[in-house]
Amino acid sequence: MNYIREQDIRDQTAAVMVAWAQSCDPPFTGETIDGYREAISAAHCIADEGRLILHRWVDAARRTGMSWAEIGAVLGISKQAAQQRFRPAADLEEFGVDEGEIVVRSGATAFNEMTILREEGRKGNELIGVGPLVLRFRRTPQIWEYRRDIGLASFVDLERQGWTLAASWLPFRYWKRPVAAD
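Above: the chain's sequence. Below: its structure in token form.
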């Protein structure tokens, strides 16, 4: 991609944040601390969506036969780095899992994923990503609880209750918080 096209995409992405600021009531101007929590959450949402889009396009490219070396070249990384970053979750299950490593649960649907989240949270597995039919966790010494919504709950209210946005996969947002020791 040439510089002009890349800059156009960056400008369009920045315009999303400007549109968000203008849509606030009152409009966010950045002149006071008020609104920065929402601004950070909005920017995080944009970044998270960009990450999801990138993964989906890499997956689509792989399904058309594009090699890991070609994908790595487009991204300016090695073939191995591309494989590690974008390998489908099902491919990760073959590896053993140690403390702090990734746990992948396949077969997650809108109907069973809350059960899976409860099970994994009780095991100390922290949600770090979602995908089609997949939930990804990192092993931790902490017990976790999870909730899922479709964007109706207020970020500020949830954060006040100790919830942190863990991931999003349309139409859902996934929240996590550590469970206090008894």
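Residues 88-182 form one domain.
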